[in-house]
Amino acid sequence: MSNESTNAKENIYSLKGIGKVFKFTLSQTFKTKSYLISFIIFVLVMIGQKPINYFSARAGQSATEEAGSAITADTIGCIYIVNQTDVKFSAEDIKKNLTEDEQKPADEEVTPIAEKMVDVDGVEVDKALSKNDCAIFIGLDQDGYFVKGVISDDSEVNITEIDGLVERVYNNFADARLASAGVTEEDLAVLQKGIYVAGTESEADYVAAEESTVSKDRFSAYMFTFAILIFLVTSMSTSYVIASVTEEKTSKLVESLLVSVRPMALLLGKVLAMMSYVLLILVIGVIGSKITDIVMFDVMKLEQIEGQQQNMFNFGMITEFGFGGFLVIFFSIMLGYLVFSVFAGMLGSACNGTEDIQSATGTVMMLSMAGYFAAMIFGVMDKDIINQVFSLVPPLSFYMLPVCYLTGRVSLLTLLGSFVIQIATLALLVWIMARAYRNLLLADSSKPKLSAVFKAVRN
Fold first, then answer.
1. CA atoms of 25 and 278, how far apart (whole Å)
2. Spatial separation of the C-alpha atoms in residues 203 and 58, rounded to whole Å
3. Exposed / middle / buried, residue 398 (Cβ in 10 Å: 0-12, 13-18, 19+)
4. Phi then psi dihedrals of residue 147, to 5 deg
5. Which pTM value belongs to this model?
6. What angle do the packed helices 263-293 and 322-349 form, to 10 degrees?
């Protein structure tokens, strides 16, 4: 009796036949059109996401620059240039830098801006300024040189046109001032070489950068991207596992399979095959994304756009933390995938029809979505106690842990402790699966509920 009991226990955890199940499931996955199309789309999204973001940002930037620099001056009658400095600068200097359309519009009925500009004294402006005119004052005060636009109290001039005109005059005057000081274009190029203009940033971003951490906004962006990634990985694979297990059970094929394949090997073979499917997507997508970066910025020499990396949906963030960071993200995704997939396989073994498949898939999806939405909420809150606690508690830890660790919210000790808890959770599910899976597969009266799983364990 003792030998039979020992063999029974050994058979529960036997992986006999896992290789055959793995190869068959993986080949069937790529033969299924829906999964093959999903594979291609997912890879293309990861590869093409950076160029799409880049050119969208570039288009928006170009539109903004064009809107800021264009001078239509449709509502302006006359433009008075008042130079109150010692720098030699006049309307003629401005006209030299106007575009061809601004000097001579295609529409012959439109008066060109060049003809509207005249040099006057400040006193004359006070007398001559009407509701359709404007004046550009160039002066010097205790703060330095300034350029400002002036319109009458009852003016009908478009303010946007004045702002664009003032900006253009300011740039032209700056060039004239440097030229009058003897600074050549070559000298200016040398002076500006190596200067990096970061633009304007919030106080929180500045403090975070000085402290070598990640700001709250950037943390939320990372959380958003990683949560979507894990949600897509788990939802894509678990639905296949449930459908595959149920199909074998309802067709009675499983009875033949269990003669040569152990129950544990049957489920884990499917789970590992789908994990390989997901792994191929991630590897090809990440490699493709890095090649895209090299082509865009090293080969094509495209200019980096400040702030693009903060885009709220950017799979390129996976590689922003270096190889070590990538390993943390990858290991966490794989652990999360295994936990959700084993759980899905157990529920699938209790299914007896199409309605049961929908119920089991809905249960797994609800659990996955709960972790996803919770990560979104807590990512926006960014509270230390919340980050610490939920980085340790599955299933939230699958969504939050890598981001919290890589952005400095939790320590290495918390990371290692959370991985231990996640592995223990996976081991517990595998133990439950080993004791319940065979009974559930051969039962016709079970339902895709946790109560059915625990009943099978007791039996």
1. 13
2. 26
3. buried
4. -135, 125
5. 0.62
6. 150
Q: Which helix (H) or strand (E) holds 424?
A: helix 412-442
- The closest alpha carbon to 377, from 405, 393, 400, belongs to 400
Encode pLDDT of 402-416 as tens digits.
999 998 899 999 999
State how beta strands 117-119 and 79-83 pair: parallel
- H runs (alpha helix) in 70-112: 91-96, 100-103
Q: What is the DSSP string of 121-182?
A: -HHHHHHH--TT-EEEEEEEETTEEEEEEEE-TT--S-HHHHHHHHHHHHHHHHHHHHHHTT
Distances (CA, A) of 76 to 110, 117, 156, 215, 393: 11, 10, 8, 46, 66
Closest residue by Cα to residue 441 from 292, 215, 163, 251 = 251
Phi, psi of 83 (to 5 degrees): -95, 110
Distance, CA of 36 to CA of 163 (rounded, Å): 54
How wide is the angle at C-alpha 406 spanned by C-alphas 426 and 201, nearest 5°?
145
Other CB atoms within 10 Å distance of the CB of residue 359: 17
> Taking phi first (over 0 means left), then psi (-120 to 50 degrees means alpha), and beta for anything else, what does residue 29 get?
alpha
Which H or E element spans position 117? strand 117-119
* CB hemisphere CA count around 335 (13 angstroms): 24
Rounded (10°) CA dihedral 307, 308, 314, 320:
-70
* Backbone φ, ψ for residue 444 (5° rounding): -105, -5
Cis amide linkage into residue 263, ω under 30° from 0 = no
Q: Which residues contact 239 (CB under 8 A, 6 or more apart)?
A: 344, 361, 364
Residues comprising the chain, all counted? 459
Give the distance, in angstroms, between the CA of residue 10 and the centroid of all CA atoms in the same chain: 46
Contact 303/389 with Cβ under 8 angstroms? Answer: no
Contacts for 257 with CB less than 8 Å, ≥ 6 apart: 248, 266
Whether pLDDT at 345 is above 60: yes
Give the C-alpha separation, 246 to 225, whole Å: 32
At residue 217, the pLDDT reads 77
175-208 confidence digits (pLDDT tens): 888 888 777 767 766 655 554 454 555 555 555 5
CB-CB neighbours of 152 under 10 Å: 14
Q: Tell the residue number behind the tokens 């065979």, with chain if given.
A: 438
Written as one letter, the residue type at 367 is L
